[in-house]
Every structure is written in C-alpha cells, then in structure tokens.
Amino acid sequence: MTDVSMQDTATREAGMGDYFALLKPRVMSLVVFTALVGLVTAPGHVHPFIAFVSILCIAVGGGASGALNMWWDADIDRIMKRTSNRPIPSGRVQPEEALAIGLALSGFSVILLGLATNFLAAALLAFTIFFYAVVYSMWLKRSTPQNIVIGGLSGALPPMIGWACVTGTVSIESVLMTALIFMWTPPHFWSLAIFVKSDYGRAGVPMLTETHGRRVTRNHIMGYMVALVPVSLAICFTQIGGPVYAVTAVVLNLWFLQACYKVWRRDEEQAEADNFAAEKRAFKVSLAYLFLHFAALMIDATLQSAGLWG
Amino acid sequence: MIKVEHELHQRRKGRNYGVLILLLAFAAMVLGLTVVKVQQLGDARQFESNDHVLRPALLPDETEGEGTQ
C-alpha cells in the first residue's frame, strides 16, 4: 500500500463522532427535552431509572430516524452546500453503514422502550421513526412544499411518547403538547427559509419559498401563527397548565404574534433593505417560544408535585 | 511499511473502545431494568408467572373459599 492510498483510507475511515453525527444530535436535544416534559407532566409515578431509559430510547429512536433520513437523502445532501459535509456525502460513512445503524437502533430503541414501559409508547416511537424516515423523507420531502408541515408531526410526537411511558394512554394533554410543536414548526421553519439562501431548488426539493415565493410564505407564517395561539392557550385549561404556564403562554403568544405580524406586513424590498432583520428576529423568537412553553410546563409540574398549586 | 501508531490505527482503536463502552452501557442498562422491574413486583414469586412451567406455589390456596359454599 502506498503512502498516498494509506492517507486516503485514513481520511475516509469513520470515527465514533461520524457515527454520532448520523443521529443528528441537535434534533435529538429537542426530542429529549420535549419528551422529558411529557414524562414529567404526566400523572402518575415512574421509577427514575425507567424514566432515564425511556428518554434514552426516545432519543436513540429519534437519532435512528435521522440516520435513515441521511441514508435516503445522501444524493441531495451531496448537492446542497449546507449538507455536503454530512458523514455520507463527505465519504466518511458508507450509505449501507448508515442504513444498518438506522435499522438496528430503531429496532433496539422500540423493543427496549416496550419492555421498559409499555407497548403503546413503543408503538408511538415506531410510528415516529416510520413517519420521519418513510412518510417525510421518502415521500413528502421531494413531492410537496407542505413537506415540513406534515413531516413536522414526527418532531412533534416525543412529548406524547413521554406521556404514554407513564400513563400508557394518549390524552388531551399529550395531544395538545404534540399539536403545539406541530403548529409551531411552519412559522419557525419558514422564517428561517426566507432569510437563508438555500439550494433546495438545485437539489429538486420543493420548498415553499421557491415554489410559491416569499410573499405566499409570509402569508403562511401569519396563518399558522394565528392557528398556533388557541393550541397554546388551550393547554391552560388542562390539568398540566398551571399559573406559570398561563402567564408564559399569554406573553409568548403576544411576542411571537407581533414578530410574525412584522414579517407578514413586509415586502421583499423592505426585507432586503435591513437584511431580513424582522425574519431573523421571528426565527429567534420562535426558538424561545417553544423552549419557554415547555420549560413553563416543567415548572408547573414541579410546583404541583410540591403541592404549591392544583 | 505500516507504522504501528498510524492515525488510522488510532481512529480504529477509538471506534473499538466506543463499541466496547456502548456494549457495557447496554448490558448495565438491561441489568438495571431487570432489577427495577423485579423490585416493582412486590411479591417476587410473581416473577415465576412468566415461566411456562406450572408452579404449585402460584396456585390459589385450595383451602381458600372453603366454608363459604
């Protein structure tokens, strides 16, 4: 073996970090947080070790669906600048390895969650993986500009799984937590899509900003924001919505509504004049919006267990 | 000639240790789950109810219910 070929092999050999990157760790952090809130707010008790294993299974299941997504999307990831350095397009991980890791981790996480908690939670996790890997990645992503809306369901389900781990049921509270993330995804993602120069078009992925233009995207942001408000406020009237959540939800909805309204009212000239300041702000507010909603639910659950309300 | 401490070997060593740690963590997790599940049974004899062999100890007491008929 020559030095040159040896060097080539060395740069292409995957390390643990490359396999970990297949699991999309940043997406996993959102999954872990929202699933934890679902688990903590659910009525009933679960042993701390089982809670830990449950969250781990949900995180690994979410990561496994990320690996399957990277396997399927390797062709378009290679074309787009943002994704060209992912483990498969950069040549560090072989597509077959990603497929094997995705399938194996999916199986492990679902079966272990079923054994640790109950089979409803396991079925919901299996559905989440299926929805992200098959319905979103293989079908919707390349066929409709509504891909992120419908596909967002897979990212919205973790709190429902966390809830089911404790109760073994699906209830109005877990449905509303899921609906909150589901309705939040479009204004969050499209605010970003307006100001980031993407090459989805070159890769043949229909994104609303490119298929229908930014004006229509602005209208969609406002429409979904208006639809998001009642979902957020409805949680106040369930057993998980306490005083902290009620105040937080009202303030956050006013804040995010105002940010989205500014995005809606602008035209392209105004946006380009200040380098998409309002869109960038709406995106940042959206991140705080979701995080603080779930943080407030967690605080209320803690106060409730301490007997301070409810 | 291949150097013993080539970067390639370092990387593979890292991967092998990574797999070792994951396997040990998995074994520890299954052990932990087993301990917690058994502790939650209350009566440890229930553990035998998963066995396919008839366990006389699990049968209801034959004297139970006598005198009520």
SSE layout:
The complex is a heterodimer of chains A (310) and B (69).
Chain A: H1 3-12, H2 16-21, H3 25-41, H4 48-72, H5 74-79, H6 95-116, H7 119-140, H8 147-156, H9 158-167, H10 172-195, H11 200-203, H12 208-211, H13 213-234, H14 243-265, H15 268-273, H16 277-305
Chain B: H1 7-39
Low-pLDDT parts of chain A are 1-10
Mean pLDDT of chain B: 77
Percent helix range of chain B: 40-55%
Q: How would you describe the shape of chain B?
A: rod-shaped
Summing up helix and strand content along with how strands pair, one would put the structural category of chain A as mainly alpha
Descriptive account of the structure:
- The complex is a heterodimer of chains A (310) and B (69).
- With 310 residues, chain A is mostly helical.
- Helices cover 77% and strands 0% of the residues of chain A.
- Chain A folds into two domains: 9-170, Orthogonal Bundle (Tetracycline Repressor, domain 2), CATH 1.10.357.140; 171-310, Four Helix Bundle (Hemerythrin (Met), subunit A) (Up-down Bundle).
- Chain A has helices at residues 3-12, 16-21, 25-41, 48-72, 74-79, 95-116, 119-140, 147-156, 158-167, 172-195, 200-203, 208-211, 213-234, 243-265, 268-273, 277-305.
- Chain A starts with a helix and ends in a 5-residue tail after the last helix.
- Chain B is mainly alpha-helical and 69 residues long.
- Chain B has a domain at 26-60.
- In chain B, 48% of the residues lie in helices and 0% in strands.
- Chain B contains one helix and no strands.
- Chain B has one helix spanning 7-39.
- The relative contact order of chain B is 0.06.
- Chain A binds chain B through residues 1, 6, 9-10, 13-16, 19, 47, 49-50, 53, 56, 112, 115-116, and chain B through 2, 6-8, 11-12, 14-15, 18, 29, 32-33, 36, 40.
- Chain B: Keywords: Membrane, Transmembrane, Transmembrane helix.
- Chain B: This is Cytochrome C oxidase assembly protein.
- Chain B: The chain crosses the membrane at residues 17-36.
- Chain A: Belongs to the UbiA prenyltransferase family. Protoheme IX farnesyltransferase subfamily.
